[in-house]
User: Fold these one by one.
Assistant:
Number 1:
Amino acid sequence: MSVPKEALYRFPWSKTDNPGAWIEVTDECDLHCPGCYRHRLEGHRPLDELKRDVLTLRRTLNCERIAIAGGEPLLYPRIVEVVDFIARQGMKPMILTNGERLTPELTSRLKKAGLKLVLFHVDSSQQRPGWENKTEAEMNGLRQKFADLLWEIGGLQCGFNITVFPPTLSSIPDIISWARANIHKVQHVSLISFRSVLLHDDWTYEVNGRPIDARKFQCATAHPEDLAVSTEKMAEVISGRFPDMRPCAYLGGTTSPETCKFLIFLVLGTQNRIYGSLGPKTAELVQVFYHLAKGHYCSFQDSPAPGMKVFLLALADRHVRKLWSRFWRAFARNPGAALKKIYVQCINLQQPNEILNGKINLCDGCLNMMLHRGQLIHSCQLDEYRLFGAPIVPRKRGKEEESPPGRQP
Amino acid sequence: MDLDRNELYRFPWSKTDNPGSWVEVTDDCDLTCEGCYRHRLQGHRPLEAVKEDILANQRMTRCDSMAIAGGEPLIYPQIIEVVDFMARRGIKPVILTNGEKLTPDLATALKKAGLAKFHFHVDSGQERPAWKGKNEVDINGLRQHFADLVWELGGVQCGFNVTVYRQTLPYLPGIVEWCRANIHKVQHISLIALRLIPIRDDTDYWVNGRKLDISSYQTRRPSPEEISITTEEMFGLLQEHFPDFHACAYLSGTSAPHTHKYLITTYVGSRRKIYGVLGAKSMEAVQIFYHLAKNRYCAFIKNPAAGKKIFALSVFDQEIRRAFGNFVRSSLRNPARLLDRIYVQSIHLQQPNEIIDGQVNLCDGCANMMHYRGRMIHSCRLDEYRMFGGEIIPAWHGGDEP
């Protein structure tokens, strides 16, 4: 990767002090995305149970934002009540949706209930009715539609989730380029590498010491090359096309700490011009002073438009110093354009649950922990619990993962 | 004992941004402690291999301090070179020793090489020749001997490790009482609950897909009471004896986040009187400002004689405000106390590696991770790797649920 990890800030998040948490209201959905790892087993979950989970999550994690996921949360009949409940507890509700059911009326009701952020899952693999066989660049048309819908209503942050497959890796710049042009409308872009369970003669999977049939996972693949996208590769593609973009902070892996499971870029700019990326010290200052003041870490800022005061960070962050001088050059050329509102856009690269060195490597400090039967689990492992009762353990057939040294007498 | 997490700071430490790390120079030792989980397999390690591990540890963890452990590091012939190598790279070297081989001359040589701290493992479960049949409070005599030795030396910090057994648990207040009286000499004490694998007939143990004969790792079958000591239990006991014993920060468990694997109380006082403790906000401020300035978290502050400026933290920390109040009242009664030096002292409660609900529960954010053959592992699991090539995984076969 182009940016050495030593130069990045490791988020201070942990299992018991984490800005984010996750609930799932239903496992039903009106699309069939190829990267989906959620199975239709239970349908809608009872509202009381969800409320109990929200309260337990806040107590356990000290979280400030709750992702409402699924399945498709907008299919859940009492979705407005869920949003309202979370907001009343003083937390930021965020919905992960494919957007198919989102009307301006529903959006207004959700906003009134306290919704802060809508994260749309939109990518070319979804084969949506009317959007079949499109490229990622063409899918920007649908993204624009959703971004405009929220922009019209106002007061809601807008983000996109994109599953990245090896064939779509090279089209990431098309997506980023669109997002940069929409920095005033789009606050978050998550590029998530395709995750799967590999069906291979060399690998078996066990739960509690018993072998399981991995074909039960709908996303299972027999092609190792499907799993070739990593955050490092995505970062390379982005920095290759946009030299002004560099990551500032990350989370490592649980079993392979040297990996970047979650890598974040904070982009600063106006509607007319992108100045560049904020540095690691900015990410650090935001997290630690937010925590000193509020007692919890920051998942996302209330306002995506920090204004000119963002340049004060130049005192501590040399990357902001560069942006400051770019701002003045832009000001000299066209003062009117330079004085337009300044926005921050967050691009994050994620590599979920993977098998590395014979072990399951999860995000250490994961933002999307959830409760399953009272137990705190990584939400990406939920269906391992629902299908088999516990997380799966991979085992390479015939070979030792690592040969032990001979024990001396 | 119910601890309120809202009043505690969760250290911001992680696997790749951590103030501490660990290197072992030898697995030889001149004592045979009851709770020891290190096996004699390899003897002294080559100096080059130790140096490589030190560099890998620093690269992976950004550590502020590194523990030189074993075995008994003081019987490692090139121990001075190890300390020197570390200190030159800006890491604070800490030696974990039983102290048997420590002479004033060796201590001076280690200090010259850049040693930051001695950590003496001293408790009644060690079968030391001259201290047989003594209880934990008697053994404060040996602790005093080491504390005095380091105090004479000057410029090097002094800490103690104590393994806590069910039968020695009642003596904990006696140990802490001694520490409080020696706040000028003793910067640190770790009270570590005994760890052993609970060997049960309804459980199999697996390593890399093979069933393991667990007796090849551990022969003793501990009773459940022996290995059920928790940090919460130790904390409760200490708080009963010392009402001012308030924790400020913790690390939780990897698989059981509700547990406190590592719980810290930091006393503030002079050699004549303990005034109070640091609160969560002070510990948070220390960690984050140190990190903002140095790009690494703080393992321990260089000068334990923090001085009266520490009371400035009263601005946002209630606990320190209370300590400051005590200091002022005490000084009004006896103005000579105004001249006393103010020290800080950390009491760590630790609960290593244990099995909860069928899963191995480790310290999340462990400050004792070590480099082993290209990967970072929890040092408490080193022998699982050395002996079997991987981690021991328990699996119940008695029923569906443990």
Note: Chain B has one domain: 5-200+230-381.
Number 2:
Amino acid sequence: MMSAREAPDGRLVDAALRCYPARWRRRHGAEAAELAALLIADGTPAASIAWSYLAGAAREWLAPRSGRPLTALAAALLAATCLLGLSAALIAESAPARAAGTAQSPSGRVPPKAEPTSPGAASSSPHQLTPCRPVPHARSC
Amino acid sequence: MSTREQDVLRRVGEASVLVLISLAGGPKHGYALIQDIRQFAGVELGPGTLYGALDRLERLGLIEPLPADERRHPYRITAPGAAALRVHLDSLERVSAAGRLRLQPGGT
């Protein structure tokens, strides 16, 4: 029996099957590939089979099951989102400071969030108002 | 417990019900299930949908796998599966009868 892997259209199906979790592939992988080969031989388009497996893989990853409850998945997604947000915030924060350090804008405008905490700490130099650590003669942070 | 609450199949989806109906006729593996469902229901079940339904029904204890025949894993319906299917089909029959009655001229 020709497996989906050996069939001309099998690569598409094989790629879709690789999207399933490892435990699913261990259990159903070989049978699923053989079933795909039989369906392709029957005249079912390989793209349709691959799409069905792809949708099944998405459901398999998203379905809550014992040992991997949805809350854990949600927490993992939340952590990933937080990390992305943190990275974006760090990049956004360093960009104006770098611009202030290199462009030396004639207006001397300073981002509002970089204001000092106490009024007495205000300084005439825009470099001291940036969130970067003050370094003598530094042009960027 | 109401009949509706007893019907555990009302939330598993059409594919799972079709798989269970097919297995009520005897144990089958994936390819035979797809062919049988195409024949009696005219529904082309995708293989991804089929494995999702098989996993769901097995988790619910409504079907069980039989020893593998080479790569193929046949499944069979369990006693609770047959009972659940009976309850579900009875429920569908009542709904169907009510619908037909209301479609008749002068039906309420």
Note: The longest strand of chain B covers residues 63-65.
Number 3:
Amino acid sequence: MASALAAVAPQFDDAEQQRSASNLGIWIFLATEVLFFGVLFAAYAITRVRFPEAFAAGSRLTNITLAGINTAVLLTSSLTMALGVHAAKQGARRALVGWLCLTVVLGVGFLAIKAVEYRLDYLEHLVPSVNFAYPGPQTEQVELFFYLYFFVTAVHGVHVLIGICCIAVIAAMASRHAFSASYFTPVDVTGLYWHLVDIIWLFVFPLLYLVSRS
Amino acid sequence: MNMEHLPLFPEAASSIANQVDTLYFVWLGLSGAVALAVAVMVVWFAVKYRAGSTADRTLVEDAEHHRRLRWIEITWSAIPLVLFLGMFVWSTEVFYQGATVPRNALPVYLVGKQWMWHVEHPGGEREIDELHVPLGRPIELVMTSQDVIHSFSIPGFRVKQDVLPGRYTRLWFTPTRPGDYHLFCTQYCGADHSRMIGRVVVMEPTAFEHWLSAHAGAQTMAARGAARFRQYGCSGCHGANATVRAPRLEGLFGKPVQLQDGQSVIADERFIRDAVLLPNRNVPAGYEPTMPSYRGQIGEEELLEIIEYVKSLDNVTQEVVR
Amino acid sequence: MSSAMLAEHDNYLYKEFGWWAWLTTLDHKRIGVLYTITITALFFIGGSAAALIRLDLITPHSELVSIETYNKLFTMHGVIMVWFFLIPSIPATLGNFLVPIMIGARDLAFPRLNLASWYLFVAGGLCAIYALVAGGVDTGWTFYTPFSTMFSNTHVFAVVAGVFVAGFSSILTGLNFIVTIHQMRAPGMTWFRLPLFIWSMYATSLILVLATPVLAMTLLLIAIERTFEIGVFNPALGGDPLLFQHLFWFYSHPAVYIMVVPAMGVASEIISCFCRNPVFGYRFMAYAILAIAAFGFLVWGHHMFVSGQSAYAGTVFSLLTFLVSVPSAVKVFNWTATLYKGRISFEAPMLYALGFVGLFTIGGLTGLFLASMGLDVHLHDTYFVVAHFHYIMVGGAVMAFFGGMHFWWPKITGRMYPEAWARFTALLMFVGFNLTFFPQFILGYLGMPRRYPEYPPEFQVWNVLSSAGASILAFGYALPLFYLAWSLRHGAQSPANPWRAKGLEWQVSSPPPSENFLTTPIVTEDAYAYSGTGSPHG
């Protein structure tokens, strides 16, 4: 299995070219993700500038504790992912599988905490179009805030889920000796994707939860 | 210029139409010249250098040749660039003229909705899909939409402006020829978009006065606005005998207003509209954000009447108006 | 081992037969063929909508179809032609086929992503066709809010989903091309020895990769807003319908460069071959392609001069639009200069390429009218705009597409097409096209708005002329279906290099072997190393 996968694909001249191509490919893909989320951030920023008080009020109603925990969870998962890539470079198969599994667990943990957070939002009547009820002023604009909140965190959550699935697959492949110190490109590439998902969260968290909260 | 069945060119019936047409003709001339030059060169080369012809094809590819090539490239990049910049400056200037409403413009209010234009003159005259205007006076249209984005266009005047829900947009013109002119909706707005058309009727000033008196509503827009002002309870807080502390509206329109967050905004139509529908958006300094919202209660046309009323309160106290 | 020594059937078409072999192929050439078949089908669906539109517009009242149907026709025509024909056209068909071969590679960097991109395209197309069959969409291809989010009662979600999915097809194609061109050029193939077609594919791919995600998110935003009846484009909640327009045009303006830059690449290949001359000013042409792609991202607001956008923003967009026109003008001059001291012949590909140059020139010049703010006020949303973009998209991009299909037909299929029929078709298309769209410039200045099934009677004569032209054009588009299909069985067998053209694709057999090159080529000369001698026929 290892030799089959590590073999250079026929369109490439050598392993080095294959590795470079994969690397450039994932960076381009990450660029597309940045633009994809960029639109959301732009829409959020523009609407926020129009309604600063309403958005500040909305921010105050978000669950900063759970989101803070989630930030720590996701950052840790990036660490475990990086340690996994490092293990792959060393050819340490068992360590690699271990770190990847831990990353999956942390990723699932992120989604679980997010689910709890969503449930709490539902109980507090903060879900637009479903049961939104905000007694204060500018209620429609606060509802807009929560629309963006759910939209951004849901799209991010979908990316986390995709990442979890990819890492799980990579972990399974690793446990079957698919990688070695000289070939671990899929681990590398998945790691980069996971780091981007983390970085996006590092923008989402302050923008939605922190700015103007006080 | 217009043959009965084969029109080539619309009538020019506004003060800006000639400038727009001149821009058009200059572009026609310039692009015609470039297109012709390219076509002539292509045909000439195609003929002269067709395979089998005996034209001289010697090419010396030395440094001098490459130097000349670079100058050719620079020249035919620089010349279009300069021409374009000149046209840019001129056409932007024309645009700004069209966007700068003259101070003495006569306001007319327009509400676009699927699929008709509601027009209201300050004197209370109402029209649907028609707009009567006097010759030779600048007219300012203050427009909003009740539903989707429309666009108000009078080709004969060379004017057009999108009409948006939730906002006021403006358009001005000075008609220079009496007659009837097409008005079209030019932003796709649903099924009957192509039927949201009508005519602009430009009348001699005296004829226009007659038309106004023949079509005058029972009240002017401002008077209707005053009635709405009382009907919706605005005078309860903003009137002279109010017990609640609310901003006074006399002499407000068009002046700067200091807001709570330190910003200063002009009290224009948009400001009044937002104050009624989104009162916590622009809270004036020194006041509490206690005004209730009238979203869903006051329609677009009623809002325009209230705005006309507030405009009429220039330095006049409410007692005198009543 | 030269390509002449290959057995007659040692090529990619004969490698493996059967549906399964084709539907699971990883060969970029077969994927290019799959795309060609798919977009041809979609072209005729979009074209049928256009035919019905032009037939209906023969009379001032909408007598052929109801107004509601007309609104759906122009919407589906736009959606299908933009996203399911023009955007993929040259890149996914000719690009997929030629990019690896032109740079000396055995395939694209990611063959499985390439196949995935075709499946995504088909899935998106099926969504769009479902929407069509289920009753259509009436928002216009531009989906302006709040009409598309809050008022339209048609299958907006299905169409938007289809375009969303097809967008990922675009992104994967672009990603594949960028990596391939960067990483897999043969030894000696430096950047400035690349054919201009490759430069055009590279620049187009940059736009595909950077602009399409913006469209994807914008479509997602309107789909969700429509479904949950809340969103940032809704003015009743304080949202801004203009925000949608900014986001939409931020993608859709670069999109028009996705559609035309590949056509420019094709034109350079054909013109140099049939003039036996290198393209005049190669470096300037390459830089112009990149400049168009880069500046193309900065001009979107010229679609919004009368939208309620601020005059200051409009001024900046107008200036940038004038600037982006300069490299396009330079390219036209360079193509013209390529003819100088050449040895010119007029086979069908050359007729299409010259047609492209002429019609693109007119289309581009009329863009300047629209870039002028003062004039755009009068022309915006009239038939002048319709004529302008059809001159570029149809007179330009589609003619170049046909030119490229004819030029590389022998390479792709191993057969020659019938030359007389092809030349006749090129001329028919040119005449039909001009008759269809030139009257629309006049209608536009007269003030006839676009998207109108009914119009004032004084506009009828020009509309009738336009529709007459459309019937000629339709006939012109139908002809290649027949003679190209005919050529597959009865066309003359083509040698490796029927045009005696320069370029690595002509060094391999027609059709090429599956792996493209038996040995990796080593490049020692510049692109277009024509010496002004010889001819396409020896």
Note: The CA atoms of residues 83 and 99 of chain A lie 7 Å apart.
